[in-house]
């Protein structure tokens, strides 16, 4: 059984103009110790998916349908109190901005000890020892001195290391990392990615890595899910999705990334931009921008179908022909 | 810093020449507090002696991490802030002491595209008015009809519809807004554009559209670009020349192909090594240690010394100056000068090509 099963997840936002669907019928599994990348452009619903799994959807956002199961047990219908016991202990979270995920009024050590003692039966002295161990683990020099310092005394990269220590200190088996490197400089980005990979591997923790950066996905994830307009366009092993994409959107996305090496005259570009949630076209959401569009695409909404090692939601693979 | 001026291979004089450009910001406490509480005068040397030549019709990109001073250089060149020292020559005329917008006949020929297309367009103005503002400022259209015709032409040139002129900025997506910024920037028929991270707020598929548009514009209008970015892959697509900045100083300036094939400065190599590799998935790399130090108190000698594997006693003592090497390459590094730099790392290009073919 997979560690995390997400089945037909729907995230909705009621507005004055009607209910908007930010995540629409998304299903995927995360296996024990696996890193699943979730990639997409802004507004594709990737962060919403992560927030739904960890039970941190901002109201009025709500789960409008489907199930989320951790170890076979449903967690999408738990009360806020029950969910709080799962968060931290079973699912850890890392967010984009390390400054807003740390409390500026408490020392880094206090925050670590609080998290550890909330979730694990441990004396204060043992928890402190463990916290210092975690600071060392995530590569912070002089951890026993840094233990008593406040977040503002840390640099951006060091802060994100503290956030990773906080997410992992109660030893959860699943980590949701939402754009963990976006706010960091490129040379620090590489350090944080390497750290995240190492601790996940050593603790056999699984992770959902939400990012818009294909490079981060390529270096980190085992499998990748590509989202478009709230739906899954394609999911599969990283090497397969990045190098032989099945869905025309993934293919366009990969072609539009500038690369190092001999430069082309033009980048491949996808015309237009992603539709707003208020006017998602009928049929396939990608049809207005798709270079391979045909009549049925405007009428039939494609389902995820197995293609090669993965799956893609595209009528090209459903036996519907022009 | 007395760096040797960079010689770029070009028959005519460069369109923009920057010499010894400096910008220091005072960071000290107010005078009275210093008097009562003690404490030294402090300055941040955001730009600390910069020499650049940009040949006509070419693109020079500045790359570097946040805080290295690349955006400050853009603001200094555009006259949005005044330099603490050095000179900026545009087509031979020194504009470094002139206030913003002055002298008008030169400022008309240089325009800027900003990073954030949400903050750089006035939300209360219609798009046609936004694009027409520079035309009015420089009195470039005789009548309102002529002005509207010109705005319509510009909108279509950047890939929007002439009818879009009646809309407000909030009706457009990020990419479309950046097209509006571009239309405004080219409305005065400039020769030189400063582009400060023009695509870093955009999604990749939209980024490709904007980068393609900018390359086409350069070919059609013969524009000269100063392009600023932290993304080396974007810079590779756009540039003829690349300058790498670290803590207010240029550490290397090279022809783009040369910089990627044969990087000289250890910091350039570090930056190249941080580019995530889309081909080798799940590669384990040894990321460079350390972070950019505090610019208020940079290390003496070479600023990069604490992170540099090649550093020695001379690097601690003496700040290196930019020296010109073969192939138009300039680097400011004692190790490169003494030949201590080890084997240059090479970027694998063949894999990238085969992938592009597959896509």
From TrEMBL, chain A:
It is a peripheral membrane protein. InterPro entries: AAA+_ATPase, ABC_Ni/Peptide_Import, ABC_transporter-like_ATP-bd, ABC_transporter-like_CS, Oligopep_ABC_C, P-loop_NTPase. It is found in: Cell inner membrane. Keywords: ATP-binding, Cell membrane, Membrane, Nucleotide-binding, Transport. Signal peptide: none annotated. It comes from the Bacteria. Residues 4-254 form the ABC transporter domain. GO terms for molecular function: ATP binding. Belongs to the ABC transporter superfamily. This is ABC transporter ATP-binding protein. It comes from Aminobacter carboxidus.
Automatic annotation (TrEMBL), chain B:
The keyword Glycoprotein does not apply. InterPro entries: AAA+_ATPase, ABC_transp_ATP-bind, ABC_transporter-like_ATP-bd, ABC_transporter-like_CS, Oligopep_ABC_C, P-loop_NTPase. It is found in: Cell inner membrane. Transmembrane segments: none annotated. Residues 16-272 form the ABC transporter domain. Keywords: ATP-binding, Nucleotide-binding, Transport. Its main location: membrane. CDD domains: ABC_NikE_OppD_transporters. Pfam families: ABC_tran, oligo_HPY. It is a peripheral membrane protein. This is ABC transporter ATP-binding protein. It comes from the Bacteria. GO terms for molecular function: ATP binding. The keyword Nucleotide-binding applies. Belongs to the ABC transporter superfamily.
């Amino acid at each position: 059984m997979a560690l995390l099963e997400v089945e037909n997840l729907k995230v909705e936002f009621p507005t004055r103009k009607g209910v908007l669907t930010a995540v629409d019928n998304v299903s995927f599994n995360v296996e024990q110790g696996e890193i699943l990348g979730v990639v997409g452009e802004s507004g594709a619903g990737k962060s919403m998916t992560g927030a739904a799994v960890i039970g941190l959807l901002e109201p009025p956002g709500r789960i409008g349908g489907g199930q989320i199961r951790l170890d076979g047990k449903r967690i999408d219908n738990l009360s806020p109190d029950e969910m709080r016991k799962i968060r931290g202990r079973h699912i850890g979270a890392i967010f984009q901005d390390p400054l807003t995920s740390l409390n500026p009024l408490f020392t880094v050590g206090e925050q670590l000890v609080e998290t550890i003692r909330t979730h694990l039966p441990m004396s204060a002295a043992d928890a402190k020892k463990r916290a210092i161990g975690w600071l060392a683990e995530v590569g912070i020099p002089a951890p026993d001195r840094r233990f008593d310092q406040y977040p503002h005394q840390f640099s951006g990269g060091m802060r994100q290391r503290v956030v990773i220590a906080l997410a992992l200190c109660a030893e959860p088996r699943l980590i949701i990392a939402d754009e963990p490197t976006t706010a960091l400089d490129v040379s620090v980005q590489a350090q944080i990615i390497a750290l995240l990979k190492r601790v996940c591997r050593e603790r056999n923790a699984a992770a959902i890595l939400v990012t818009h950066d294909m490079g981060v996905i390529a270096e980190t994830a085992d499998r990748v899910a590509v989202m478009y307009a709230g739906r899954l366009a394609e999911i599969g092993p990283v090497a397969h999705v990045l190098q032989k994409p099945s869905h025309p959107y993934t293919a366009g996305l990969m072609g539009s990334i500038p690369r190092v090496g001999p430069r082309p005259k033009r980048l491949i570009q996808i015309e237009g931009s992603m539709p707003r949630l208020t006017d998602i076209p009928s049929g396939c959401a990608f049809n207005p921008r798709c270079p391979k569009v045909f009549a049925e695409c405007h009428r039939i909404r494609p389902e995820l179908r197995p293609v090669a090692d993965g799956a893609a939601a595209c009528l090209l693979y459903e036996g519907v022909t022009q | 810093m007395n760096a040797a001026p960079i010689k770029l291979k070009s028959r005519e004089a460069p369109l923009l020449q920057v010499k010894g450009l400096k910008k220091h910001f005072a960071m000290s406490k107010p005078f009275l507090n210093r008097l009562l509480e003690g404490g030294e005068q402090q300055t941040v040397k955001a730009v600390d002696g910069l020499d650049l030549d940009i040949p006509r019709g070419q693109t020079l990109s500045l790359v570097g991490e946040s805080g290295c001073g690349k955006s400050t250089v853009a603001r200094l060149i555009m006259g949005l802030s005044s330099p603490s020292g050095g000179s900026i020559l545009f087509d031979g005329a020194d504009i470094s002491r002139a206030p913003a917008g002055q002298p008008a006949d030169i400022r008309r020929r240089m325009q800027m595209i900003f990073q954030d297309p949400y903050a750089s367009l006035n939300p209360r103005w219609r798009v046609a008015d936004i694009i027409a503002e520079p035309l009015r400022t420089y009195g470039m259209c005789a009548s309102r009809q002529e002005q509207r015709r010109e705005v319509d032409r510009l909108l279509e040139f950047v890939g929007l519809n002439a009818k879009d002129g009646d809309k407000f900025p909030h009706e457009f997506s990020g990419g479309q807004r950046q097209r509006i910024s571009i239309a405004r920037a080219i409305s005065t028929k400039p020769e030189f554009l400063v582009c400060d991270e023009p695509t870093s707020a955009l999604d990749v598929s939209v980024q490709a559209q904007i980068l393609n548009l900018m390359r086409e514009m350069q070919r059609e209008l013969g524009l000269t670009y100063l392009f600023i970015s932290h993304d080396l892959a974007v810079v590779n697509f756009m540039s003829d020349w690349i300058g790498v900045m670290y803590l207010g100083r240029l550490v290397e300036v090279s022809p783009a192909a040369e910089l990627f094939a044969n990087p000289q400065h250890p910091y350039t190599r570090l930056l190249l090594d941080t580019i995530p590799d889309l081909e080798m998935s799940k590669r384990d790399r040894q990321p460079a240690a350390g972070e950019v130090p505090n610019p208020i108190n940079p290390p003496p000698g070479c600023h990069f010394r604490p992170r540099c594997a090649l550093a020695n006693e001379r690097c601690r003592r003496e700040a290196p100056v930019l020296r010109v090497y073969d192939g138009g390459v300039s680097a400011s590094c004692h190790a490169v000068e003494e030949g201590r730099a080890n084997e240059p790392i090479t970027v694998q290009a063949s894999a990238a090509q085969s992938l592009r073919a597959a896509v």
